[in-house]
């Protein structure tokens, strides 16, 4: 009886140890995916929260940059870090003071990015005609159309565009983490059976 019990313990202990390697990332990916779904369900709140987060991060980064400027004042580019920190704090404070204007500015930047990157990718794929160029051309076309749609629907698109992009990013990141965790689990099972 003691031999059977010890053999069961020796089998379950490695499984518990290895499940921690893939289980934690899987749960984190699942939670991120759920957060992405919630973000997509409330795109206006996600857009506003993203702008407030961005403004806050600019202020924090500016403070750290000013601190760094005083740390390197005798050995490094003091004025560059100091002015860069002040600029970050000012822009971050402006975004926090007027989140609506910050949201419109970020939406315009997003629309410009989609349009420019799509145009670049589409033209490059047409000119080079490398293997799989059709997929890149389609991606570029969709990106250009998305940039035009967002620009044409300003200012109302500022309420949904950023929220959708952030929600999709969180959802896709969660799914990729879960997929990586499951791949790790499969590889660990193969190693255990061989």
TrEMBL record:
Transmembrane regions listed in the UniProt entry: 21-45, 51-70, 77-97, 103-123, 135-154, 160-184
One Gene Ontology term, aspect cellular component: plasma membrane
Keywords: Membrane, Transmembrane, Transmembrane helix
Recorded superkingdom: Bacteria
Keyword tRNA-binding included in the entry's annotation: no
PANTHER family in UniProt: PROTEIN HDED (PTHR34989:SF1)
Protein name: HdeD family acid-resistance protein
Originating species: Cystobacter ferrugineus
